[in-house]
Amino acid sequence: MKRTISMFLLLALCLSLCACGSKEEETPQQLPGSVDPETGAWQGQGGCYRTELVELPKNAWAQFCRDGEIYSMSSPSMDNTVVYRGQEELFRCEGMPELLCESGEGIWVQCEEREDSTIYVVLSLYAYSGEPVKTLRLEMPPDCYPLRLKAAEGLLYLKCSDSVRVYDGEGALVCSYPHEDWAGWLMAGGDGKMYFCEQREKGGGTLSAIDPEQEKMTELFSYEKGTLSSGDGESPFLLILPDGLYRLELTGETRPLALWDECLLSVNGITDVEAMDDGRFLLSGMTGQPMLLTPAEPSDIKPKVMLTLAVLPTQQALDFGEDPTLYYANVVQRITAFNAQSTDCYVKLVDLSEGGSLTAEQALTKLNTQILSGEGPDMLVLTGSLSPFPFIRQGLLRDFREDLEADPDMSLEDIVLADAIMSDCGGLYVMADSFTMETRIGLRSRFGDAWGWSFDDYRRIDAETPEGKMVMYNLTRDYFLRMAVSRYLRQGIDWPNSTCDFDNPAFVQVLEATRDVRETPEDPENMVFGMTLLADGYEATELVMLNTVTDLAKESRRVGQPVSVIGFPTPDGSCGTDFNPGDPIGVMKNGAHPELCWRFLKYCLQHTEQGIPNYRPLLEQQLEEARHIDAGAEYPMWYDGLKSPMTEEEIAVFRELLSRVEHTTLCDETALDIVREEIAPFLAGDRSAEETASIIQRRMSLYVAERG
């Protein structure tokens, strides 16, 4: 069955080479039905709205809205929190508050204290002018963990791990409602009452009304999908769905408030909505930066070209039951920022799984059918269930060297990952605005100036490692297999000539190294913490994730001794570190608007705020800023980077690492699965390494012949 589906997909991809070219050039025009072409009147099902990004004070995050103002907070240190009204600092308070809570009498600041095993919730009330009013100290019962405070009708509602506890304004307990452990959240309705919402694992949920006078909680209705938020005077609740924002009544009845397509908007990743007093709505969630949804005139809805960017998480992620787009937070942030400044086009995120209603296999079949008919997406995020290699093999992706050659502001030399991507993919068929590096470090006293280590080095060091210590923390055989085989696949398959070479001593060495791994998986009895394990000799190597230009220097400083960046062991001891592109994107070769797709990707390259920039001028700018880090500056409590300037030696080591990395983590998952399936009998002792290599060679030859 799998082979039949595979051949169908292959045929669809091949046929699509011709079909894609039939997609006619589209002209910018608004979506039908939203604006009357003759009168200019709005005739959409929802209202006419526009969005704008909200600028908050540095390092602040939004908390609530009142009288048209957005209140936010930041914590520049462990014992100092700042509360803002708009851009104005309203007041400062001591401690590390969890959240702010707005009530009719002021702003509650929620903190937590512990005395032995007892937890206390400390609630401090501040007037809207910023003056302190009073403080309450609430003792929690055993095994009851406080989460979030809400206020309504003069009462304080505290959502806890196992219950909702209701207090009066002086801190006296009124009543308590038990619920399933760690389930649900409190929500104030637009009618001023308090409600309890419980999300179901596979989407949707139930809403219950809390009645403190009767001391009961009554279920009102269930909803099948979406996320609930507080409403306003027109409806008690708002329902966030992929296609728009809806009003929701106590009966469960819905009506559209704003439909994104009608307004030519692309809005994704919204997890909370706050109604403001002037008809606007504050949208926040995984976009990082909040947005305002503001009433607009039909004339404000200008014609734009819609570019579609498709995503498809893995089947494992789809089975988890959450909104699939939640796995693409960084992509959503890029889209939101680009759309906010683009005047003639906008990018829309398309979930190929249709909210998880399709399996990954069904979604792939649907995608290929769309490509076959010339109606496929303009761009693909090539992670999750969308590997770049099937699209590359069939010639469906645009080579970005074309765009770079025609661009007056950017060249191939400006793309840090260009050589590595071209080496792995045969061309610059994917683009990422940033990257990370998963590598390993070891003490220079052990590894010298090496930038890699071999399988033989691993075996020798493992044999020298005393009982109770380890070479690699959380090492499993499957992880070793993936890291070792994905590297070999680059040299083992010659796609241009449709040949492969796995029946050889070098690949036998990979199989034998995988067999010889001493697994040290993380489990409840094998959990280690701390940042000096390497220097203490507990580990021979330490896994580090390099997410910024300063991370390598930070990790080296923590160890306190000179370190070598060796990465993962390789057969010959060559560089064992790879680039991990951040959500790489491919553009369909025969799409209608390649120039607009490049404009989107170029914007992302020049404005990324995640990971290490793939755009070399931006990377150099960050290195220059690292030279001038203010050692006396105040940093947020969650900050985990350097707090003093990066030295020239540290910068030189980082540059040297970049120059030595030759490959990305992009991997042909189908080829990897072939090896994973055939190595199992060898690991069980039922086959020799040579027999296994021969069988893998036969299977891989068929696969390469079919796809090459």
Q: Can you characterise this structure?
A:
By secondary structure, the chain is of the alpha+beta class. Mean pLDDT is 89; it is low at 1-32. The chain is 27% helix and 28% strand. The strands form nine sheets. Strands 28, 31, 32, 33 and 35 form a five-stranded antiparallel sheet that branches. The chain has a four-stranded antiparallel sheet with strand order 1-24-23-22. Helix 1 packs parallel to helix 4, helix 10 (477-492) runs antiparallel to helix 11 and helix 11 packs across helix 17. The two termini are 22 Å apart.
Could you give a short description of this structure?
The chain is of the alpha+beta class and 708 residues long.
Topology:
Elements: H1 2-19, E1 49-53, E2 61-66, E3 69-77, E4 80-85, E5 88-93, E6 99-103, E7 106-115, E8 118-126, E9 132-139, E10 146-152, E11 155-160, E12 163-167, E13 173-178, E14 185-188, E15 194-199, E16 205-211, E17 216-223, E18 227-230, E19 237-241, E20 244-248, E21 254-259, E22 270-275, E23 281-285, E24 291-295, E25 305-311, H2 315-320, H3 329-341, E26 345-351, H4 360-372, E27 379-381, H5 388-393, H6 401-406, H7 418-425, E28 434-443, H8 444-447, H9 455-464, H10 477-492, E29 493-494, E30 499-500, H11 505-515, E31 542-546, H12 551-559, E32 563-565, E33 580-581, E34 585-587, H13 594-607, E35 612-613, H14 616-626, H15 648-660, H16 669-683, H17 689-707
Parallel strand pairs: 25-26, 25-27
Antiparallel strand pairs: 1-24, 2-3, 3-4, 4-5, 6-7, 7-8, 8-9, 10-11, 11-12, 12-13, 14-15, 15-16, 16-17, 18-19, 19-20, 20-21, 22-23, 23-24, 27-34, 28-31, 28-32, 28-33, 28-35, 29-30
